[in-house]
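Aim 2, interim progress: modelling of the magnesium ion-bound target.
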Amino acid sequence: MNLYERAQAAKQATPSPAPPVQPYPIAPVPPESPSVTPSPSAAPSPGSGFGYATSPRPNETAKLSARAPAPGPMPRTDAVGRLKVNAVETLFERLGTRLNDANLDEAALQTMVLTELNQVVEESKIPLSSAERKRLIREVQDDVLGFGPLEPLLGDPAITEIMVNGPDKVYVEENGRLRRVPISFDDEDHLRRVIDRIVTRVGRRIDESSPLVDARLADGSRVNAIIPPLAFSGSTLTIRKFSTDALSVPDLIGLGTLSTEMAELLKACVNARLNIIISGGTGTGKTTLLNVLSSFIPSADRIISIEDAVELKLQQDHVVRLEARPPNVEGKGEVTIRDLVRNALRMRPDRIVVGEVRGAEALDMLQAMNTGHDGSLSTVHANSPRDALARLETLVLMAGMDLPLRAIREQVSAAVDVIVHLARLRDGTRRVIGLTEVHGMEGQTITMQDIFAFDYSAGVDANGRFLGRTIPTGVRPLFADRFADLGIQISSRVFGANDTWTPRR
Ligand SMILES: Nc1ncnc2c1ncn2[C@@H]1O[C@H](COP(=O)(O)OP(=O)(O)O)[C@@H](O)[C@H]1O
Ligand SMILES: [Mg+2]
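Predicted structure of the complex, ligand included:
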C-alpha cells in the first residue's frame, strides 16, 4: 500500500475523523485521589514546570476542582495540609531567588527543591505514611516548580490556547472555541509570580520599565505576558500551546482538508521543486499544511527552515532550523526573519521553508526563489490567491527599496509557481479550497489560473457540512510540462475524467 492508499484506508477505518472531544477535567475528585489545600496566598507558587506532564495527573484534576468557585470538595485542613503550607513557605525562605535563577537547569532545580523538601518534612516530625509523604512532595513541587493553577490546562492536550486576563479570569481555546474555565489565581501577586518565573527562566525580565515580554517554554509553547499599567485589567498571560503531534497527510485527508488526489498533486508539486505559497486567514491551518508539504521534500535535500517561533516539525534528517529573535530589554540584539533568509542563502540550502512571510523578508525570499533556490515553501496571510499576490507586493514594498511596482510584480510572478488557498468554511472545517497557478504578466497585471476550485454548488448536508469537494477546473496547468520533463507521474484520477492535461510522456 502506498501512502495514499493507507491514508484512504485509515479514513475508511475511522468514520468520525475529528479528534475526540476531551472533556475538561473538572470531574469530582475520586475518593482515592488526594484532596488538596489551596495554595496559601503567602506562599509564592510561581509556576513553570518547563517539562510538565502531557496528560493531566489525578492531583491536578483535584487541584482544579479545589480552585473552582463551583461547589467542590472541601480543602484539606488536617495536619498534612498545614505541613504543606509550611513546607512551601519554608522552601521559599530557604531557596529564595535561586528558584528563578535562569542558570540553573530544570533538573538541578528539581534536585535542590527535593532535597530541601525532604529536610523540611523530616524536621516537621509529623508522622506520615509513605503514600502521604509522596503525595505531599509532589503537591509542593507542583506549587513551587509548576505553573500552579495553570498546570492542568497545560497538561490537557485538547486545549490549544490559554488566556489569563488578570487573576480571576482564565479562558481556554478547545476545538477552536473559546470558553472560560473555573480557575483562578489567589491574587494578582500569585499570577505575577507565575509570570516572573516563566520569563526569568528564559533570561528575560518583566517589570514596569519593560512590561511586555515574549517567551517560549521548553516544550515550544509560546508565551506572551503584559502587565499593568499597560494591561489595565491585571497581568495578562497568553500561552499558545505547542501541539505535540502535528497533523499528518492522513489526518488532513481524514479531516476533509485535502482529498487523496489533492495530496498526491501537492506531493508532485513539491517534488517538482515548484515554489509554493500557502495562503489563508488566521488559524485556517497554513502552518499545519506547510508542515505537511515540507514532509514531501525528499530526504536528500538540505532544508533550512526559518520561523518567527519554531512550529514546524520537519521529520527529515538534514534540516537546519532557524528562529528569529526579538530585541532584548535594551532594544538590542534583534534578528529578523529577513536577516535569517539572507543568512540561509549562504548556507547552501536546497530548500528554504519560511514559516510565514509578513515583512520585508518577502523581497529576499522572492529573490531566492528566482535565483536557483526553487522548491521553496512559505505561507502568507491572505483572503484569496489574488490577495496573496497583492500582499506579497505590499510586503516587498516594506523592504523600502523603492522598486517600481512593475518590477515587484515581475519578481512575484516569476518566483511563485503555485498558490494553495485554505479557508475555514462555515461548517467549521478547514479545507484547501483552491490551487492556483501563477503564469506571468500581462501589461501591469499578474496572470493566474485556477487549477482546482471548491465546488460550493454541491450544497450542505443535514448538519450543515459542505458536501462539495475541491475539484479540477479542467484547465491544464503549465506545471504539467514540468512534471513530464522530470518524469513525475501522477495518477489520472487526480484530474478526474478530464484528461486534457495528462503528461505527454
Ligand atoms: N486541516 C485542519 N483541520 C482541523 N484543524 C486544523 C487543521 N489545520 C490546522 N488545524 C488546527 O488549527 C489551529 C491553527 O492551525 P495553524 O496551522 O497554526 O493555522 P495558521 O498557521 O493558518 O494560523 C491549530 O490548533 C491546528 O491544530
Ligand atoms: Mg501559522
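The mean pLDDT is 80. The longest helix spans residues 106-124.
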